[in-house]
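Question (not urgent): is this output format expected?
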Amino acid sequence: MKFGQMKRSTWVAAVVAGMMWACIAGAAQSVAQKQPNVPPEYEREGGPYVPTPNVVVDRMLGMANVSANDYVIDLGSGDGIIVLTAAHQRKSGGYGVDIDEELIRLSNQRAKSLGVSDRVHFEAKDIFKTDVSKATVVTLYLLPEFMKRLRPKLFNELKPGTRIVSHDYHFEEWQHDADTSFDVPEKEFISGVPSATLYLWIVPAKIDGAWRMKLDGGGEYTLALKQRYQNFEGTAEGKGRQSGLISTKLNGTEIRFVMMRGTDRGEFSGRVNGNRMEGTADFGDGKPLRWSASKGS
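Got this back:
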């Protein structure tokens, strides 16, 4: 394990009918951040393995709404339980990376035993050098220092709309879109806290900058947008007037804002696709107008 990189593990039972397998994987931590109540049987070189109850695995996959259409990447995959459960129970594809080669070997072995090795695989690799662009869902159980370092990588490399779910730790200044906390008595003997908190992010489209917008029957406008993760603000300038955008919202590729056109209030909704976005604007007259915008010139 590398510099305290955390791994995930869990107790698993009855994943395949008639087959029971229990696993403990983990989250290695540096000596300075060592959990106080780790029993001797979990002590390993590089730090303790922290078992994750199966209920946490299930809640993480549920929070991300994982389905057969998804590709789950687990960074710090430990024994692979997140990817394996997603593949077996929800029929998704997936990929797990971890610094521990033995856990990677066992994860690939279990994938074969479960009959999902055609859809998932595991690799011993540095999480910061992992290609995450294929993911539709990313799962994490990493210490705060690693969350902070991963934040720009995930924001810049993941496709808009990708869901990220983290167990217990968050991205600080990148505000999460949802969270949930629940009792997990099994965690108390490891961390002293009998509960878990999960955080969800929806990777937003990149909209920062200048846009040229056309509104059917309503002329052309210049939008100046300033983005901070899923939050943005901006102004619209056209017909010699400038107005600020209000009630702004960005959820993955879906965008909403309110723009005033004289005394008329326009509610804009649409979808971002790279350097273009388009949708409809409702000015309250029952006749929605089409609008489109392109970034740059």
